[in-house]
Design goal:
10-stranded mixed β-sheet; binds 3-isopropylmalic acid; two-stranded antiparallel ribbon; 353 residues; 43% helix; alpha/beta; 2 domains; Isopropylmalate Dehydrogenase; binds manganese (II) ion
Length: 353
């Protein structure tokens, strides 16, 4: 198989971590007998500041022709908030109908969780965040702006189609894991959206997934349980904004953003899916060799799993597990141990695993 992959290093530490990911990818291609064709795209804050362009339609159409997009991070200090978020990240998610944002929460052995006493056996679940609706749809408006009577509305859009498709994906994901799916919402207050989510959850579960065990947890309680009781979760599904928030909490529980990977998936495979570490561009440490490429490599693992290279994805999971166990809490400091050293070791470990 040959996979066409668009790489977007982006800003700050993004290009550094994607570079290590690509070295691991090349090794896996040799080991597991596939090839990749890669094209690098210069997108992000730096490019916006020098050209005024964020993501024009011609580039968007070119990206459509790839099997996957591998992205580092976008964001630069002088770019006003919202420009890259709406103009690049969300534009890609929406244009390519990447309706699933898949974010694993897995504590690897050797990683210190801020949750005292948490063990890897108790923390291994995935969050499925709906990725195209809710307040991210951008519905709402403002009236009398700048006056004492200013009104701002920000509406949450939820469609039966959008809710049902992400629930179906989640039920299927649960079936492939431990057979348990938790819906997270706030049905006690968000009565309209919550009602749509809950009814669809019950209907789809009863009709097509009677073998998957269901649970429901309010989002505030989910925050509590992520910390006190993560073993109650296998697959968690939730709407876009709740998913944004609780997956950062999940990242903290699994040891920090250095271990948080994500896939923005179009499960229909009509459009390319996009894989990115959850961490940002960290401009303060760019170029110092202190960026940890582990989250970018885990995102590559998600990419390979999605395109059908399960053996390679498994190698990444095991190699990262071995790396984190052997380095026992150490992170790149740019002096004795750097971004490239992590890449070197992972290139070795994928072959041994
Ligand atoms: C994320 C980020 C984005 C989001 C921002 C940068 C638009 O926080 O991927 O979680 O809110 O989805
Ligand atoms: Mn976020």
């Amino acid at each position: 198989m040959t996979y066409r992959i668009a790489t977007v290093g982006g800003d700050g530490v993004g290009p550094e971590v994607v570079e290590q990911g690509c070295r691991v990818l090349d090794r896996l291609a040799e080991l597991d007998g596939f090839t990749t064709e890669r094209v690098d795209y210069d997108l992000g804050g730096r490019r916006y500041l020098s050209t005024g362009e964020v993501l024009d339609d011609a580039v968007l159409e070119e990206l459509r022709g790839f099997d996957a997009i591998y992205l580092g991070a976008v964001g630069a200090p002088d770019v006003p908030p919202g420009v890259l978020e709406r103009g690049l990240l969300l534009k890609l998610r929406f244009a390519f109908d990447q309706y699933v944002n898949l974010r694993p929460v897995k504590l690897y052995p050797g990683v210190a969780s801020p949750v005292a006493g948490l063990t890897p056996e108790r923390c291994d679940f995935v969050c499925v965040r709906e990725n195209t609706e809710s307040v991210y749809a951008g519905a709402g408006g403002t009236l009398y702006r700048g006056t004492p009577h200013e009104v701002a509305t920000q509406e949450s859009v939820n469609t039966r189609h959008g809710v049902e498709r992400v629930l179906r994906y989640s039920f299927e994901a649960a079936r492939r894991r431990r057979g348990h799916l938790t819906l997270v919402h706030k049905t006690n207050v968000l009565s309209y959206a919550g009602d749509l989510w809950m009814r669809t959850f019950e209907e789809v579960g009863d009709a097509d997934f009677p073998d998957v065990e269901r649970a429901y947890v309010h989002v505030d309680a989910a925050c509590l349980y992520f910390v006190t009781d993560p073993e109650r979760f296998d697959v968690v599904v939730t709407e876009n904004l709740f998913g944004d928030i609780i997956t950062d909490l999940g990242a903290a529980v699994q040891g920090g953003l250095g271990f948080a990977s994500s896939g923005n998936l179009d499960p229909t495979r009509t459009n390319p899916s996009m894989f990115e570490p959850v961490h940002g561009s960290a401009p303060d440490i760019a170029g110092t060799g202190r960026a940890d490429p582990v989250a970018a490599v885990l995102s590559l693992g998600q990419l390979l799993d999605f395109v059908g290279e399960q053996r390679s994805a498994q190698r990444i999971d095991r190699a990262v597990g071995a790396l984190l166990a052997e380095r026992d809490g150490a992170v790149p400091d740019g002096v004795g141990y750097s971004t490239v050293d992590v890449g070197d070791r992972l290139v070795e470990l994928v072959a041994e695993n």
